[in-house]
Write a structure and sequence with these properties.
This protein is of the alpha/beta class. The protein has six helices and seven strands; from the N terminus they run ααααββββββααβ. The longest helix has 18 residues. It is globular.
């Protein structure tokens, strides 16, 4: 099957980043498998075949032995394991939703939380957008404000960077103790937010160690 243009871009970026971030290679390889499966789902893969393909993914326990039932197509489950599979299955139709413009901390198309931020050049600075964790809608959002609690005090919104990962940064909030990672396209114009966010898992570990919780997990549950 020939992937869509969006699918091809994500797959090629993930393959490239496995060489740049070898410590995240296993995560990126799993992301590629999931992206291929989602492309097949979008092309009309049956429920039975989709479950078989989910079983074929190279998953760790307890995901590898998790019971797959038609209930996964219903409302969002509460357990991390069930939610992992639910997001894989539901993200495909969700990505067909049209984009909408709104300056809110949740997606204007489906209401989900953002998985990443995006910085694009604008004048002497950079304009920030947020990317939905479910439908991949991107919408504009102010730079100096927490997408989780709305904090606007610059002193309470620290930004952390790692020298070896210059195009992705941690944007934290000392009020609600959450963070989101933003991908700076002015530093790497080939970056794909959903993919580069997964590749830079080292930043997640750093944020966790410093008491910040991620606003929303990515497709791999991280």
């Amino acid at each position: 099957m020939v992937p869509s243009e969006n699918g091809r871009i994500k797959i090629e970026r993930a393959a490239f980043l496995t060489r740049r971030f070898p410590e995240s290679a296993h995560l990126l390889e799993l992301f590629i498998q999931i992206t291929v499966l989602q492309e097949e789902l979008a092309a009309g893969l049956s429920t039975a075949d989709s479950f078989a393909r989910l079983r074929a993914l190279n998953l760790p326990e307890p995901l590898a032995s998790f019971p797959l039932t038609s209930a996964l197509f219903a409302e969002e489950p509460s357990t991390p394991e069930a939610r992992f599979f639910w997001r894989i299955l539901k993200q495909v139709p969700a990505e067909s939703k049209p984009a909408a413009e709104a300056y809110t901390g949740t997606c204007p198309s489906c209401g989900a939380k953002p998985v990443a931020g995006v910085l694009r050049g604008e004048g002497d600075g950079a304009k920030r957008s947020l990317v939905c964790s479910m439908c991949a809608t991107e919408w504009p959002y102010r730079r100096v404000i927490c997408p989780n609690c709305g904090e606007e005090d610059r002193e309470k919104l620290p930004v952390y960077k790692a020298e070896q990962i210059d195009h992705v940064r941690v944007e934290a909030c000392d009020t609600c103790h959450t963070y989101i990672k933003s991908v700076d396209l002015t530093k790497d114009g080939f970056a794909v937010p959903q993919v580069d966010e997964i590749a830079t898992v080292a930043l997640n570990l750093w944020a966790d160690e410093h008491g910040y919780a991620k606003v929303e997990t990515n497709l791999l549950g991280m």
